[in-house]
Specification:
Blueprint lengths: L8 H18 L17 E5 L4 H9 L4 H7 L3 E7 L2 E6 L5 E6 L6 H5 L6 H7 L10 E3 L3
Helix pairs in contact: 1-2
Amino acid sequence: MRAAGGVGEEQLRCFRECLQEAMREHYKHHWFPLVPSKGSGYRCIRINHKMDPLIGKAAGMIGLSHERLFQLLPSELTLWVDPFEVSYRIGEDGSICVLYESPQPGGKAAKQLESRTSCKEEWRIGRSSPSKSYNMMTVSS
């Protein structure tokens, strides 16, 4: 959104704060740090030629229209927001990239509590199209 012709730093800061608050409220009863994948489908943010309501709500609060958002953001974006990890994919066949990752309290023991597969893993495992090589990479700042 910072790209040429995008939004200014103050507007971007307001958008970020509005989006964080919208997500905090929306995920309030769907956040399970002891079982991070529980509720992951509910926390999946999608732009697929249709604007995700949470992004649209935050943009509306700073005066950005859906049309302007579609100019600033990819037309196909999936964002998985889980405790301890946020990852994304641009396009339907793009690589899944880790945007944010933090260690889980308790390390490996906490991972063993998780018995369900995450939304992101279900997507990779249950994909019905021909098999492709999908890479996982970490994005750092």
